[in-house]
Amino acid sequence: MKILSLLLLLNFTVFFNINAQDPTPDNKKILLLYETQQFAEASKYLSQFYTESSTDIQLINSIAYSYRMAGDFQQASIYYNKLYILDTLNTTALTNLAYINNQRGLYKTSMDLYKKLLSIDSTNIGAYTALANLSRREKDIISAFNYLHKANTLQPTNSNIAYEFVQLCLELNQSDKADSVLTIALEGDPENANLLHSKAKVSEEQKKYKEVIELSKKLIDLGEDSQPIWSLMARAYFKLDDFESAMQVYTDATLLYETWGEMDYYYMAMSCKALKRFDEGLEFMEKTLKEAISPNTGFYFARKADLLVDLNKPSAAAADYIRSFQYEESTINYFSLAVLYDFNLQNKANALKYYTLYLNKKPPTQEQSYIEYAQERIKALK
């Protein structure tokens, strides 16, 4: 029974004619190798019985399977190709070839094989979902949507397919379609946290804020109290102008999650404003701005200024150097601004100001040549 269960689990059978005159593999040995996960040994053993002229489909399939399970995709591909040549309608060969090519990074070949598979079996769910994933990888969202739509139509109660399809629906702003897909899927799996979370997001898109709150509470009761779920519930209360509840949700969630994103801090700030808790609101708005501004913003403004210098637009360049100081006080940017005022804009007063500021910022020793130059220019300008 153990051996039979293993064969059923693998969806794989090996039946060799032990009465044939030609040497044949020992079934017991093969099953033992499979049971002990010795697939590389199994592939070596089975290959002894194969010749280039062999047309034994079961033998070729067994060798291909063994190589695949051993992780030797190149050899597995060779034998699955032999199987496909013998029978171009062999869906097992096509499925495995498509999978192996995908694993080897040969995505276009994999897509072509999955399409061939669908031309033989138009109800193959695995092929549709695989093609959807491959299409997403190619940034072809529309094709991915169509493949998942077909898969979902064939199996509307499949939770995994429904979840993936809904994510694409949301990307394409098709919240009504997402809602109908989730309604059917949740009938069969009413406590699926992924589906419930997606339903909450769809309800938010549809401005059904009371439903968002109910779904969020259900998820939290199920133990799925992730930060995005708390955030969905708090934002829903905010949209209903229940600012007290919104802040209470954020306060409760802060016991679990100390830091939040830009939009959540904004909702906190505006909730506090509505509740006339202005000091707290100002603190949250400061956090909003901190999250909104990239740590590289100052660097980017300075590099933009460099480009403006190259374009002979010194005034605009000076403005962007000055803007960069709001985000990052890089000493070399003070030096660059001083040089810009000194020679491009002929503004000696500002040149002297920024050379002096550059030295006051105590630039690193790696900038020694700039330090000496700034010192000489200050003497000259004075």
Automatic annotation (TrEMBL):
Any Pfam family hit: ChAPs
Signal peptide: 1-20
Keyword Repeat: no
Family annotation (Gene3D superfamilies): Tetratricopeptide repeat domain
Entry keyword set: Signal
Gene Ontology annotations for the cellular component aspect, listed alphabetically: cytoplasm; endomembrane system; protein-containing complex
InterPro entries (UniProt xref): ChAPs, TPR-like_helical_dom_sf, TPR_rpt
Biological-process GO terms, alphabetical: vesicle-mediated transport
Name under which the protein is recorded: ChAPs (Chs5p-Arf1p-binding) protein
